[in-house]
Amino acid sequence: MANVLCVIELLHGKALPVSLEVLGQARRVSTELGATLYAVVALPRAPSWSDDDLVATLASHGADKVVIATDETLNGGEELRWGTHGAALAAVCDLLSPSLLLFGATPTAREVAARAAARIGAAFLHEAWLEARDGAIALFEGAGSDARTLDDELEFAVVATVPAGRYSTAVGDDEAEVEVVATSGHGPDFEEIGHDADSRPPVLVLVDEATRAAGETLARALGGEISDGGGKRGGARLVISLGPPLPARNAAVERRVRLGGDDGDYVVPGDAAALATQLARAIGEGKSK
Amino acid sequence: MSLRAIVLCKRATDVALVRAAAALGGETIALTVGAEGEVLSVLAGARAAGATRLVRLWDPGLETTDYLGVAYTLAAAIRASGDPTASPTAIVAGDRGRGVVGPAVAERLGVPLLGQVVSIAVEGDKLVAKRRGRELVRTFAAALPALVCMLPDLDATTSQHDVPSANSAGDVDSWSLAKVGLSAAELSYRKHFASKAAKGPTPKPRKFPDAAALAARLRDEGLIGRGGKG
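Output (structure tokens, whole complex):
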């Protein structure tokens, strides 16, 4: 039976939404293929019975089994990186020989997914589509007439990243079998020696004349900057447009949001200026909670 | 031993990688895989950006291979240019597009890897790299050899006048697979892993019913902070 592995990326101890969405589509694909779906999490140590929220979350989102790859060199809060998480993922892949190894398409997962693919000699798909029909799977990279596909027999392993918002989550059981895989044997790595504040704005709000005032309110609430789209457009992790064109997808911009339109990664339909004011208010309410 | 920087070049915008590598001092090698007509202008740009040596590797068998076949070839070419474990070698790739070849070369060579890198320097015998994280720019150091994948400078603009003509590349070492100790037969099995053109699905944006739902999602993703800062 084929094994489908879904690598779960954590933020403050919780699975990222994109990881749960990838797990959801992996659930649908695994059901169609009759494969076993593993959610894979790297942690410093196995969670105790009293703090098994993460395992319950992954089970309830469709995992048949949860693999905890324990590595005492992790502290549990670091961002995904090959140097820190690679050994754990390698140990799991050696044990389970995945047919499909899936990641949420996040900036931090880029190097990990790519190196994992090379390590197991897999085919690689970036920002992939995973479509299951009639007991088979169709895998695509790109979109529409510019897309590319792999042979759908899955005769070799495939590593794929899947972008946020592409698929919905799934519903699974309340419990999943847990396997613990201990990791050892790190190779040479980069060592963190310091950090600085990021000089780029965390959020860039793109405005036109009609939305400038609302955009300024939103940018203030987010600690970001505004732009008319003619100058800096790509440096922020989050770009929200109230009018001007959004930048193309790239490795630095994590999310492109359109208020009052229909392009980008996330959209909210309606009047852009009014939505910007509502979003600023919602952020302020989050701050007071 | 003197420092060597090897830049994996593919497109014209990779001159930024060459500039960053050349600023380290020492020999800067621009290495590319491609037919002459496709990559000579890329190499000319690399020369203008400070590359001291240009290497182009090509074999018709590479046309049908996948990312890993290319990575095997680049890794073999890096070894053929001088053992990276014998002399301090920094390898620089671009972190853009699929972003798969650089990490695959690192795996093939068994060297430390760091992506999302915005700047590099050499301090003592270590490569120091600044990596863009979720909230901070983190600084990392590794003994050489090591490979970094650098983010493009998205606000930099390149005018038509900045692109040198292909015939200004100067001397280019043209290597075959045999020169780096590989044969087309060793790579040919990877053609089965390569994707082929097909009509695929069309992406649709995720629609949120209101601003509050969007705010909640962005918070869960760590893209905006609970404190109101991004």
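Chain B has one domain: 4-193.
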